[in-house]
């Protein structure tokens, strides 16, 4: 656990440097710690260092962890693909859902969020690079889904989220982030009151911040490699 503090300091330093280059205030960008597949001891250690928000991709794994750190005030974000049969648990136990990509999911979350709970914060996931294997609404359909979210009770539309095509010799994610920023600004100019553009991970948080990200989702650079060798 000794490297958790060093990891957090390094990520915060990268964020600060990226903001300076982009002419932005580092206080305007939140770090979401992506804790999927990592032990709850690391979550607790990172939370004790001041990390408030954690993201999980799998409902059952998240519920187990939540029970183990129920003494904390962690803010939980669901960031994975969401199936209809999992919406009730998500509506009951999470504060944010960043991976909404169709009306049916919005409707179920709205119906299943208890009336005495704070509104559930939601982001629309955008498939900005139109990858057939990825979840997310197509860019041209975002406005329609955003209007649907506004019309439903117990939901608070906060913004957009994306997972761009991986960097390669043929693709620079900076272009994807630039298009996301333009879409985000277009919605705001169209009257939507949004404050969250969730994009950027361990490998490319600088490019995301340069193009308007307000929340970076960091896993590997905070927790170390996942047991399944994934990188976020």
Question: What does this entry look like structurally?
Answer:
This protein has a single domain, classed as Alanine racemase (TIM Barrel, Alpha-Beta Barrel). It is 41% helix and 17% strand. It has helices at 2-22, 40-48, 59-68, 87-93, 103-112, 142-151, 173-189, 205-210, 220-223; strands at residues 30-34, 53-56, 75-78, 96-100, 120-126, 155-162, 196-198, 215-218. It has an eight-stranded parallel beta sheet. β5, α6 (142-151) and β6 form a beta-alpha-beta unit. The model has no long low-confidence stretch (mean pLDDT 95).
Characteristic terms for this protein:
232 residues; 9 helices; alpha/beta; TIM Barrel
Give a summary of the structure in a few sentences.
With 232 residues, the protein is α/β, with parallel strands linked by helices. It has helices at 2-22, 40-48, 59-68, 87-93, 103-112, 142-151, 173-189, 205-210, 220-223, and strands spanning 30-34, 53-56, 75-78, 96-100, 120-126, 155-162, 196-198, 215-218. It has an eight-stranded parallel beta sheet.
């Amino acid at each position: 656990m000794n490297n958790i503090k060093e990891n957090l300091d390094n990520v915060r330093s990268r964020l600060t440097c990226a903001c300076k280059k982009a002419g932005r205030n580092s206080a305007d960008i939140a770090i979401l710690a992506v804790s999927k597949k990592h032990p709850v001891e690391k979550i607790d250690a990172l939370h004790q260092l001041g990390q408030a928000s954690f993201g999980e991709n799998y409902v059952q794994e998240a519920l187990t962890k939540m029970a183990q750190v129920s003494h904390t005030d962690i803010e939980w974000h669901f960031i994975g693909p969401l199936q209809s049969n999992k919406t009730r648990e998500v509506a009951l136990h999470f504060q944010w859902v960043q991976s909404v990509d169709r009306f049916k999911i919005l409707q179920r979350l709205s119906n299943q969020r208890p009336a005495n709970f704070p509104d559930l914060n939601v982001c629309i996931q955008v498939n900005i690079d139109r990858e057939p294997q990825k979840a997310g609404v197509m860019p041209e359909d975002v406005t329609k889904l955003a209007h649907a979210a506004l019309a439903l009770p117990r939901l608070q539309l906060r913004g957009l989220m994306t997972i761009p095509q991986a960097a390669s010799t043929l693709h620079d994610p900076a272009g994807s982030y630039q298009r996301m920023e333009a879409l985000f600004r277009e919605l705001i100019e169209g009257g939507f009151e949004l404050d969250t553009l969730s994009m950027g991970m361990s490998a490319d948080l600088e490019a995301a911040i340069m193009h308007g990200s307000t929340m970076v989702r960091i896993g590997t650079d905070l927790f170390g490699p996942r047991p399944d060798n994934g990188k976020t």
